[in-house]
């Protein structure tokens, strides 16, 4: 018996009911945020509705405790947007948003979703580069202040944030590669055609270190306030919005990722963890941001 054929809308209905249940449960956490005087780290306020890890909770805490006037978000590297940092913000808080992904299939999927007519969401297909990012924002009516910018492209993240001039976000969420450690300001060399899956078979060679982002944040007028507990997203708040939050350093706010996404040469998960991950990419080039010089990873990090 094919239940999908007999009840074609059943799965959609179940998914919607689960989504509504998760949103309702999350609201209870949000109400408790009003009673929190101080947090020691971002892990204390995490919860997950649509984010990959606990970032939905962190974002809700920030928008309820910071003076964010412009209720607009930007997120790129969203896939089909079923798992994203800003989806709960869109649905629960009715923010306006721009989302970007390089896969036209994903963008088509999003535009056919119910949320696309229910909310003020713009989905754009583009392969983001330093050369086009500001044009993408401006051509979609975004210039100046925005509430939240979320960057997750598994590659040129450092160089893209450095290049952004068109918008001035209150909060920046940006992915870092925790296997580079907390001590050195490192990034992959910039290449407008960089693709993580093609750069190295292990899928581990991408992005930048947390220290690189801390230094860039300072240069752009932001305080680093911590990482999520899974060690992949770093949070930055513009200095004039910091409020009662305490700035961190890359050393104090660093979290080592535990997820095991490494691949073997046949593209299969190899489940390599810890420092063993670095050995796989030790011969790959890396830019030392402080010295503005390119090295091999093995020349900088103890592997």
Keywords, please?
13 helices; three-stranded antiparallel sheet; Rossmann fold; seven-stranded mixed sheet; alpha/beta; 303 residues; globular
Write up what this structure looks like:
- The chain has helices spanning about 5, 10-35, 55-65, 85-95, 105-110, 115-120, 135-140, 155-165, 195-200, 210-220, 250-255, 275-280, 295-300; strands at about 70-75, 95-100, 120-125, 145-150, 165-175, 185, 220-225, 235-240, 285-290, 295.
- Helix 2 crosses helix 3.
- The strands form two sheets. Strands 3-2-1-4-5-8-7 form a seven-stranded mixed beta sheet, sandwiched between helices. The protein has a three-stranded antiparallel beta sheet with strand order 6-9-10.
- The protein has about 300 residues and is α/β, with parallel strands linked by helices.
- The protein has one domain (about 10-35, about 40-300): Vaccinia Virus protein VP39 (Rossmann fold).
- The protein is globular, with a radius of gyration of 20 Å.
- Mean pLDDT is about 90; it is low at about 1-15.
Secondary structure topology:
Layout: H1 3-6, H2 10-33, H3 55-65, E1 72-76, H4 87-93, E2 96-101, H5 104-111, H6 115-118, E3 121-125, H7 133-139, E4 144-151, H8 157-163, E5 167-175, E6 186-187, H9 196-199, H10 210-220, E7 222-227, E8 233-238, H11 250-253, H12 276-280, E9 285-288, E10 293-296, H13 297-300
Helix pairs in contact: 2-3
The number of helical runs is: 13
Quick one: overall form? Answer: globular
**Distance, first to last CA:** 56 Å
What is the name of the CATH class?
Answer: Alpha Beta
What about the largest sheet?
Answer: 7 strands, mixed
User: What is the element string, with H for helices and E for strands?
Assistant: HHHEHEHHEHEHEEHHEEHHEEH
